[in-house]
Amino acid sequence: MFQNLSPAAVDSILSVAEAFRADGRTHKLDLGVGVYRDAAGNTPVMAAVREAEQQLAAHQPSKSYVGLAGNLRFNRCVEQLVLGQEADASAWVTIQTPGASGALRLVADLIAASRRHAKVWISDPSYVNHAPIMQAAGLAVERYPYLDVATGTLRREAFLEAVAGLGQDDVLLLHGCCHNPSGLDLTLADWQAIATMAQAQGFLPFVDMAYQGFGDGLEQDAAGLRVLAAACPEMLLVYSCSKHFGLYRERTGAAMVKSAQPALVRGKLFELARRSYTMPPDHGAEIVAMIMASDDLRANWQAELEAMRLRMLASRDKLATALAQRGLAADYLRQHKGMFSMLPLSDAAIARLRDEFAIYLVAGGRINLAGLDESRIDELADAVAQVSQV
Ligand code: LMR
């Protein structure tokens, strides 16, 4: 049966995690997979999550099935988080999914079911799983210019020129905030320009929001996508609670679709979900719903999230200073948002960091600043300076 299988593609993030686990060196440093780590190197369960879990364990009345849309209270929370507390979400269909990866696949299947020849445009570079998920649904993928690796800045002119060329068969996939892998975000003026072009040209905006609250704050991070949501009659959105609720393994995400045919869209999403995973896991979604429904838990969660955000900002600043002290210009680290930035390193330099210094980065030079403790910043800067010498 399986003799004709081709070897599996290597995932550049998960393979780094695996190689790191297998490395026996005690001083190894993991800047690969996107998880937040505290000063002790642990990825803690957030205090509000812990408290909600205890309440849930004590009081959950049943483990019976939820419906195809998942946890409805969670879906409403996601709408309020992403669109704003007072926003009118009546034009949106929201369904809970197994993580944002599940949402990406569901939405890709929805696009393919509606317009098989649609082309999905992703940033160059983009999250490593964007293209494979879109292609697995049978969609064509193209890349638009985004990051100038040498300067860490947006290739604005080329980017806007590419968007200006999109039409009704095109889907423009954008990162809501804290761009993965570069940390380079669009300005509000960029979002406004995209909204104007989407209205005039008819392409479909699609936003992946996985790091709300890790950039400038919960509300500020959603400001750009809210410009699109207000202006565009149709839009796609996928949402993750892995990072800002620390619910990674609970696979807690959502797919949102704004359209003039909500009943048709809802029915098709249900059909697609039924055919693959049927219903999403409820645990993480119920935790989020409980936190958002309690003033105390919500305040506690927001305070912890803000502390995480400030710690990442401090790491950015300290690494930029440490690199500058070693003659490497890295002010872009201070301009970027969230967990990730890319160091402009060659493949050979990244391999040397791994082999000689036990420092693990994702191919392309992505580092997870949320995995970097202050006590190791000088060590990282020294190693980067050494491998950067030609
Ligand atoms: C990452 O980019 O490291 C995370 O989003 C983990 C993943 O699923 O790829």
From TrEMBL:
Q: Which residues form a coiled coil?
A: none
- Keyword field: Aminotransferase, Pyridoxal phosphate, Transferase
Q: Which domain of life is it from?
A: Bacteria
Record keywords: Nucleus included? no
List, separated by semicolons, the cofactors it needs: pyridoxal 5'-phosphate
**Is Transferase a UniProt keyword of this protein?**
yes
Entries under Pfam families matching the protein: Aminotran_1_2
**What is the protein's name according to its record?**
Putative 8-amino-7-oxononanoate synthase
